[in-house]
Every structure is written in C-alpha cells, then in structure tokens.
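Case study B.
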Amino acid sequence: MYLQLSTWQEVDAYLEQSKAVLIPIGSTEQHGPNGFVGTDALCPEIMARGVEEATGCLVAPTLSIGMAQHHLGFSGSITLRPTTLIAVVCDVVNSLAKHGFERFYFLNGHGGNVATVTAAFSELYAEASLGKADPDRPALRCRLKNWWENEAVQRISRQRFGAAEGGHATCSEVSLTFYGYPQHQKNAAMSPEIAPTGPIYDSSDFRKRYPDGRMGSNPSLASAEVGKELFDGAVPALAADFRAFADAP
Amino acid sequence: MYLQLSTWQEVDAYLEQSKAVLIPIGSTEQHGPNGFVGTDALCPEIMARGVEEATGCLVAPTLSIGMAQHHLGFSGSITLRPTTLIAVVCDVVNSLAKHGFERFYFLNGHGGNVATVTAAFSELYAEASLGKADPDRPALRCRLKNWWENEAVQRISRQRFGAAEGGHATCSEVSLTFYGYPQHQKNAAMSPEIAPTGPIYDSSDFRKRYPDGRMGSNPSLASAEVGKELFDGAVPALAADFRAFADAP
Amino acid sequence: MYLQLSTWQEVDAYLEQSKAVLIPIGSTEQHGPNGFVGTDALCPEIMARGVEEATGCLVAPTLSIGMAQHHLGFSGSITLRPTTLIAVVCDVVNSLAKHGFERFYFLNGHGGNVATVTAAFSELYAEASLGKADPDRPALRCRLKNWWENEAVQRISRQRFGAAEGGHATCSEVSLTFYGYPQHQKNAAMSPEIAPTGPIYDSSDFRKRYPDGRMGSNPSLASAEVGKELFDGAVPALAADFRAFADAP
Amino acid sequence: MYLQLSTWQEVDAYLEQSKAVLIPIGSTEQHGPNGFVGTDALCPEIMARGVEEATGCLVAPTLSIGMAQHHLGFSGSITLRPTTLIAVVCDVVNSLAKHGFERFYFLNGHGGNVATVTAAFSELYAEASLGKADPDRPALRCRLKNWWENEAVQRISRQRFGAAEGGHATCSEVSLTFYGYPQHQKNAAMSPEIAPTGPIYDSSDFRKRYPDGRMGSNPSLASAEVGKELFDGAVPALAADFRAFADAP
Amino acid sequence: MYLQLSTWQEVDAYLEQSKAVLIPIGSTEQHGPNGFVGTDALCPEIMARGVEEATGCLVAPTLSIGMAQHHLGFSGSITLRPTTLIAVVCDVVNSLAKHGFERFYFLNGHGGNVATVTAAFSELYAEASLGKADPDRPALRCRLKNWWENEAVQRISRQRFGAAEGGHATCSEVSLTFYGYPQHQKNAAMSPEIAPTGPIYDSSDFRKRYPDGRMGSNPSLASAEVGKELFDGAVPALAADFRAFADAP
Amino acid sequence: MYLQLSTWQEVDAYLEQSKAVLIPIGSTEQHGPNGFVGTDALCPEIMARGVEEATGCLVAPTLSIGMAQHHLGFSGSITLRPTTLIAVVCDVVNSLAKHGFERFYFLNGHGGNVATVTAAFSELYAEASLGKADPDRPALRCRLKNWWENEAVQRISRQRFGAAEGGHATCSEVSLTFYGYPQHQKNAAMSPEIAPTGPIYDSSDFRKRYPDGRMGSNPSLASAEVGKELFDGAVPALAADFRAFADAP
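Model:
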C-alpha cells in the first residue's frame, strides 16, 4: 500500500491493523561514471516495492535528498545540511504520529545518512524525554535499516564482485538500479579499474581523493542480472526485519 | 533528462548548454474521498514529464512533502513546518548553484506551498543581499509556477467542471492523477455533492469545516480523460514558461 | 484604543468585549526619489488610525521592519530575513494569545511581507496541528490584509494615476504618506517619468533593473490631496473587513 | 533626521558625513496601574527626538517590542524570545552595515533588554571573529545606552521621588511618557503605596510577587512636569554620549 | 557532592533534601602573558570546591566553554556563539528540572558570559511564560553569580593590587589559578606594566587595542598566596549566597 | 600540554609544530548502581592524560555533556539535544580553526554521541562544501575515536568480564573510572546479576526496560586494577591513532 496512491480513509483503515510505516530514504549525489545520481534513493525505493508486496506495509514517499555534502564537488549532487535533515525527519515523524503511527521504519540507501538520521531519532525522542511532546502520545520507535545489511546482499556481493564491490558507487547498488531501470543502463570505462579508498572530509578534498567519484569499486562489473539477484535475496530479509520491528511488543 | 537517472558527467554536459533546472514540488496530504494523498506531488511530476519531453530540461527529484499543516486532522497527511521547508529549498538551491546552475524553476502542485516557497526564495536572495553568499557566485533566480496557472487548465476546468471544480481536492487535480495512475482510480460517493468553502486556519478547525477533506469541489466528476486533456493543454504552456525563464537575459 | 497608550487593566477590559487585535505591519526600505523610507510602515499605521476611530479596535504597535532584502542596494533599507520575521510574528501572536486574544488582524503595507507573514501564520498554526501548543488554548485565527486591497483604493488609484501608479513607490502609497506627513513632502524629478517593470531577485539585481528604486510608477504625481481621498475611501472598507473578521463565528 | 521620513538619497548624503545611527529600542509590556503598556518604547523614542534635535543624527524606527517574558501574566504584554530578539538586532545591523553604517547606538528604554541586546552584539561580532562576515567590511561597533543612565536623571529622580522611584513602572518613566503624551495621563490609586521588590523569574511567579505589576515604585507621584525636567536634563547627556560614540577614533 | 562522581541513586537521595544545584561556568580564552587559557573556568571550579565543602551542595560538571568571541584573535581561545550558549544552558537546566531540581546556581568566572547566560535564563523562563513548558513543572529559578562579586574579593584585590587589578587577565583571577595549580605558574614580563583599557568589539579590534591580551591589569603581581587569601575570603560569602538562594521561600 | 593550563603564547608555539588537537568528549548520565554519572566524560579524560604524556599533544577541555536523552529517566542525567551538540562542536572547531588548527581528534567516551558528533562533522564540512566557509581556510579534518575501540581494551574486557561486560555501565568503563578516582569507588549489589539488553528509544521506555540503568552488564565485577590494565593497554593504541591522524598527508 502506497501512501501517495491511497486516500485518507484507506490510511485510517490501515491504522486499525498496523501502527508501522516504511519510509524509503536516500540521497541525490554522484555515483561515478556509470551510476545514477539517484542511486541511493532508487535502491531503497526498489526494495520497498518488494517489502510492500511481501508484507502489505504502508510505504511513504521516498525522501530523495539526504546528507551528501562530500559529493558537492560533482555536478548534480544535492545535500541537506545535517540540521535540515534532522528537521525534516522530525516533521515527517511528528506528522504521522498525529494520526496514530508509532513505528517508523526508514529503509535507507545512503551510508552518509546514517549518522544524521540516527541523530534525528534522538532529537525526536528528546522531545518526549525533555517533556516537550504531548504526554498522551504513545512512545515512538524509529529504526534505520540499510538495504544492504543482510546476509543475502553480503553474500551475493562477495560472490559476484569480491574486492571490486567498493564503498561508494558500489557494484551492488549500481546493479540494483540497472535492474530497476534497465533502459537507462550506462557504459563507462573505469580508470583505474578499482577506485582508491580513504577517508571522507569536505567536498573539495573528496574530489581530489576520488577523481571520478567512486570509492574502492569497479562498477563496470554491475549488471541488471545481479541486481535481480540482490532484490530477490534481500527482500525476504528486509520484509522479516520490518515485520519484527512492527510486531515487537 | 532526469537527474536521478543521469551521471554527474551527463549533468556536466547539460550545464554547458543550460543553467536552468526544473524541480517539481508538491505535498503529501489528504485529498478527500477519492483523491490520492500524493495528488499534489504527482501532478507536477506528471506535468514535468511533459515539459521534459518538450524542452529537454533537467528534472530534479520531486520534493514530495510540502507545507500542509492544515491537513493534519486527516490520516496520512504530512507537513514540513514552514521554517523546515525554507531550509530544504535553500539547501537544494545552494547545492545546485555550487555546480553552476543559476535558474531554479519550481513546478508546484500545492497552493499551501506558495507562501513558504516564496519566502524561501527571499531567504536565499537575502544571503546575497546581506553579503553572506560567495560574492563570485552569479545572481540566482528562482521561480515558483503552479501547474494550473495557465489558460488551458483554467478553460478546461471551467468547461468540464464549472462550479464543482473547487479549491481543494479539485476535479482537475484528481483527474490529472487518474490520468497518470489509471489503475488506482477510486470511486467514492460525495456528500454533500459540492463541499463547503471557507478559510484555512489550523488542522482541527479545518477538519470541522471540511469533514471529508474537500473544499468546494465535487471530485466524483474527475476522470482520466479530462486528466489527459489537462495534460495536453498545460504542457505547451508550461514548457513555454520554462523556456522563457531559462532564456531571459 | 492604542496598546502603547493603555494600561494592562484597560486591555483586560477590552478583552471582555473583543478577542481581536489590529497589528499594523510594514517595512523600512527605499521608496524611490520622493518616497519615504518608512512608507510601507507609515501607510498601515495611518490607515489603522482610521480603523480605530471607526471600530474602537485595539491597535498594537506597528511592526516597522519587514522582509525587504531586495531593497538592500539602496541606503536606509533594512530587512529581516524571512526566518526572523516568522519568529517575530509567532512571538507576537503567542504573547497576545496568552492574554486571551484569538484573532490577529495584520494590516499590511508591504507586498514583500505577504509570503513571509503568510508562512508565519502556518508556522503558528502548525504548533497546534502538530500538538506543540497548549491544548486548552482556543484556536487562533490570523489575517493579513493589504491596505490597498479594496475597491476604493483601486478606483481612486486608477482615476488619479492610471498606468503611472506602478508597483513599487506607487503614487498611492506616496500620496498617503504625504497626507499623513505633509510637512515632509519631497519634490524630485523622475527620469524616466515612468519607471521600468520586471521581476524581483536579489538586491544587486534589483538596483540594476530599477536604478532609482521605483518599479513602474511616477510618484511625482503623488499628493496629499489624493492621500486624503485614499484614506477616506479605504477606511470604511478596512473597518468593515476588520469587523467581519473579528465577529465571524 | 528620521529614517522613516527620509529618502534613500538623503540617507546617502547623511552617510557622507556620519557612519553612526541611533536606534531606539524598547518593550511593550504592562507598567502598573497608571503606566502605558508602551512606556519602555515611548521613553527612548521621546529622548531620541531630543538627541536628534541636538545632534542631527539619523534616527531609525523604534524597535517597540523587546524581551518581556516576565510580564506575560498581564494583559497586553508582548515578548520576543531572546533568540528572536538577537536575530532581529543582527538583521537590522547587518542591513544598515550594507550601506556603510559602522556605529550603532541603541537608545534603550527597558532593563529587560540589556542582557539580550548585549548578547546580540556578541552574536554580530562573532560573525566577524569566526570569519563569517565579509572580510572587507569595516569593523562594526554597537552600544546600548539606557536613557536613565546619566547624572541628570538620577538626580531628578532622587529629588522628586526618592525611595518611591522603584524598579519597574518607575515614577521617572511614567513621568516621561506623561510629558510626551499628556492627553493620555491616567489616574490610579496605588495599594500599597510603594510596591514590593524582589527577583524576577517567569511570568506567573512575577504576577504573584507583584500583583499590580509595579516593582518598588509609587508612580502616582509621576507628572508631566517632572517628565519635562527629565527630558531637559537627560537630552544633553545623551547627545554628548552619542557624539562621543560616533566620533571615537 | 560532585555529580560526576555520584550515582543516580545518590542524586535521588540528594533531591530529598535539596532542589538546588551549583553549576560552575567559565570560558576558554587567552588571559595574557602569564594567565592560563582556562582561567575563567578554573576559578569558579576552585571556588565551587570550597562552597561544596561548606554546604554539601551538589556540583555539576563545569561548563568550560563560554562566550569569548572577542578573544579569538589569540591562539587557544574558543567561543560558543551566544545562541549556542543559550541552547546549552536551556538543555542543561531542562534536563536537571526533569529530575526535580528547581534552583540553578551558576557560579560564573567570565564577565563575557553574563549577558548571554542572563538571556538564556529568560529564554528558559519564556518557555513557561509562553505556555511551552510542562504546566505541572514547578517554576524554575536561575541565578548567575560571579565569584568576585563579594566584599572579600573586592577588598583583597584593592589592598593587594590597587589600580593594577585591571579588567581582563586580572591579578585576582591569575592569583586564584596559581593557588589552584601552583605547579603551572608562569613568569612573564609585562610591557607596559599596566595594560590599556577601553571598549570591546570584535576580535581583530580587540587584538589591536590589547596586543598581549590584558586589559588594564598587571598580572605579574599575581601570586598563589593572594590566591589563597581570595579563596578563603570568598568561599564563606559564596556559600552564604548559595544557601540563601537554595532556601529562599 | 593542556590548553586550560597554557598561555596563548604557548599555544602559538605548539602550532608551529602541530596543527592537531585532542578534544575529550563525554556525557553526564546515570551509569547504574555503582557507576559515576560522569563515567563517559571521565574515561576519555583519563585516557587523554595518557595520550598527552605519550605524544605531547594539546588537550582541550573535556566536553562533559553529550547526547544522553535516553537516560533522562534517572536523576542526574543531562542531555544536549542533538542540534545543540552539533552547534557546540561546530563552534569549538571553528574557533580553533581560526588559530590555525586543522585536525580535530575527538576522544569519545559515550556511544550515544557517535551519531550526533559525526553529523556535526558533516555540518562543519558542509559549510566549506556549500561555500559558506572562508575560502582561504585549509580543509579541516575531524575524527571521532571511542577509547574502547582498540585491540587491548577488547581483549582485556573479554578476558576479565566476558559476557558480563555489557553495553551500558560496562565493567570496563566503571573499572577505568575506579582506577582514575579510587577513593570514590562504590559498592552496590546487582539484581539481576547481568542486566537485560535491548533497543533504545526515549527515556521513559529506557527506564522501563532497564530499571537500574544498566544494559547487559554486571559492573560489580569492575575494579581499579582492571582499570589500570585498560589504561596501560589502550594508551599506546590511542596515542598511535592520534599520531597517525595528526601526521597523515
């Protein structure tokens, strides 16, 4: 069930059986020579479709823009400052909590979001802990889950790409988007084959360290076929994780 | 050209011919008994596809969540507080300006966004006017355009729906989403046929005044056919408006 | 009744008969070669005197500084950033609501305030809609009314100034301040007679487009006589509008 | 010279001879049984007229609303939160600095503003000290001056009112407003004659400690005559202080 | 009793006998040629030890970083912007108020904190006054006390240092830290013997006026012996002041 | 070298040989029946002493209050909201960067700080990436290092405490503070011996899940002896990590 394609009466009916909602969250940022700028938003959106089919959960619209300050040296990258993203997450959760939602499952596609979204959860909880939230409101629970954090994705990635998987513009994420948007697949030579690795500071430092935007990966190995494998492997794990979160006492 | 499906090198190439970008912006809020919660985000997204086809412009990911505090009495509605939405718009524009974009065309689907997004433009300009922006950056220009503000939409709406068009959950916007998502069309009886009209204050006042969420409309008249008419009529006007903004000296 | 010249006991007595307050809001910004920097604050203040005489309403002190970032290229102009003005409006309304005021009528003198003040109202309402306001507080209602939005002003302006009325440093607003402050009238030659028109972006762009600060007007036609006409014409309309807002069920 | 009644060209001319501006700042808050709610804004505004006549300085519009949270238990009182007032002061100064003003003399009428306005100055200076201000901008200097801080006012107050002067709703400030607005003078019996004294915390505590709003004063002794004395005594001192600040190397 | 070295059960037990807590607050900023960067944090921390011994009060961890923007021209100086420090003070007090603390005694070591911390108290109180705090929470009371504001310190300083005491990097504060950290005493020639005096604006202006960081002082006169005198003299006064605040009805 | 006990001239001298500074950061929050409220601040402070001795690095004052909203159900716990802590970290780093520091090593004692401090680093970098930082400033590098993240601590903890180590109020951290403050060691019976484990949401949920404040640990096993082992084991690893960060090209 997709929030964007439902009426408010249908949401009311959903709330009678579940207080949990799935919110895909990603980023809009460069993903190297053959990855889409939208990779990190498209991946959790694709996975969310599988989870929705498996569980019937309500899927909110994707939060497509995340914390990507380090990518601003490459055209097309967009960032929210961490404090902006915290405000967005708080407003979204507080809005849905008004209707009776209590459990907020953020299916994440971008490592760079983890710290900020986790901080946003604390900002939210702190409203209650400091006595600023409606005292009659049930306690809220939020969870951030990266789509690649499950045995299936780890295994397939290792088998298919090994050391070429990398850390940004990974073979797996590019594969998943090629599976989702096969008509938009790109070809690009990679030089060097495997990109360098290292730390992340600001965007001009990032561009110097990683001239074509990749970190540690060779996404020319990506394919829609492996993307399908990843999808088929990950969805049951993510669906189970969602259910466990939604149903926990 | 869609930002989410492009590489950063493709965005670089685009920038050599244009400094303008189209950003659909909407809202996630109740739209009465047969309108989608996502109506106001889906409408500019649908129109953006037409404009993209007509002009080849770069389309950023849709900002799906807007200022909808007055709808929070109905399940599924999500709002950003105005100050949050201002921060989001500023961050998005400042990010894209880093790459050389200078003209930002927000194609809007939600009347409730107009004031806040316009205020956000002033917040952005004020950075330059108060000497807080990089003095070497070219002056930025932003434009908010409602998809229904053109002769074609006004005419078709008048012809097809007359006084039943209304002000929220309008026949036109519901029609356009039925055209975009025909398999998700809803049927719902409307009682009274035409919803009441009046002012907007907070969400509990709104729910009292407009018990099923509509304002002044009878969207049971909506249809995918009229949605197509609206699309075919509006796209040339919106494309021309975009071009005029992008090309103005 | 003027808040600044009343005691708190007199305000208490007022509250027994009315929950509505009139708040003049303007701007401090250049108004071309013969207009006062304070034009946009003085105009609603002048009109407020008429409305007070007609209705006995409580008039708060004028908020003299508004959102005027685009005028910062001209000496004397002062702006609040939109986020600052939002905070001001929220604090003013929340303070007065503490005493039992429920209806807040902002009589506005500056087009550049409209978006931001409207966004501020939504920020205020959102506190209630998101459950952050005292649940025992009655619902608040705010209204922004431009002093020139009534049939009388439109008619007189058309008759007296026609196409020379313009959009900034208008003949009407300059006339009204000349009526209010006749001893301070200025003479200045206008070249060209009628100023150019166009869009508004940041302050350096504004100064380039509108070198003497006027937009589309020839305020050398302004006079205290027409100012009196405007005052006499507008006050009954504004008083009626205030009463309707104050008394609406 | 009054900013509100000047043109931008006149301000330009002023800047050729002085970089200093006088900004009256006050508060809108209860002042006991016979004091105006606007006392703290009217007093510096009245004094500013004298200083303007003596020095020809440019006088900005009065910032009528200050930090008055402790008075919110009495009808008509309005507060800006300290963080809001800091934003206002920063925006006002940064705007005027854009035009070349370098020295900002805040003539203050409200003890409750002192801490917050002083903090605002530090917030402003910190922009430069932390490297966030335009490095080409001359260093700014701000000064907060309470109108009663001079030998003349202290002497007259002591002679005329002695121990009845008090700390809030003082005989002197009420006298000064009676001098400025003689037709609005109020009579009210005071019981007890001299109000209690003590500390200041939040507004409900304040109302309990000071039931009619006065602190330590018996403003039934106030008169327009003493108001004139205070004005005549203070203006030369304040004018000298302004000149010293404006002319300091 | 020191919060950092207590368990939460011990804090619970303390709350049964007292609702007051002592919070040392200082600054991290240059203190001239022989003063520690931490002088303003170490002084109230040293004095707090004496007050704790005298009263058994609970001592919170020292807030070591304050508002010191004007010192940023000298290496090692750290500032919080005033708005940041306000947020810190509000969070600290709101946290402790959750547990039942009602009286917050800030023992201060830095003149530059006074305005901002006082503004922070108003920000806190304003939450209650504007109806944003939990209505069931008892009214909070905050007090800022400078360690040098008592007869003993004034007398000893006058006797020992006279006109050489100065305003920043004073003989007294340097003495007190030498008493507290005798093994870290520094020797440094002062030239001129007594530093200049004057106003405070931003950090580059400050460095120009006060080239070695001192204001009006000759701290080469400082000694651990006088530091002990100051400690012995001030502690009884501060302890009495704390008790009076804690026990006031 | 300790910033608090140095003069600004000594800091200047330090900067000639190193651009790196160590900043201990912790939290003030309950640590179960026998752990100090200050455990998470004291641990990195103790470790910092060892690193200072080994490397001669400059140690800033400990940031003693962190993000601990979930502990507010237990007396003595203090939290900064995440947005406040972000502001603090940004101000501290921006202040020190003014003097020429470029590398900021936060030695952390609290798991609950990790997300927020990491987000703060991104907020800082984003200033540069979005063009809001001084373009002449060298790129900044920040690192958050938990004191327990090294082989020695992991090994000793496993050997000494095994499954009783736990996740909050761990045997290791309590041991380290007992080593640092042996005279303040507490005895307390633990019931159950090993505390429950689970997720973290807001503070009332936390108190329900973890009634005495521990998570998964049995800190009655803690001892000053093991604390010394941990200190001796960890310091060389942390010193090496600091040097590697400081010296990286």
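Residues 67 and 79 of chain F are 5 Å apart (CA to CA). The remaining cases will be described in the next quarterly update.
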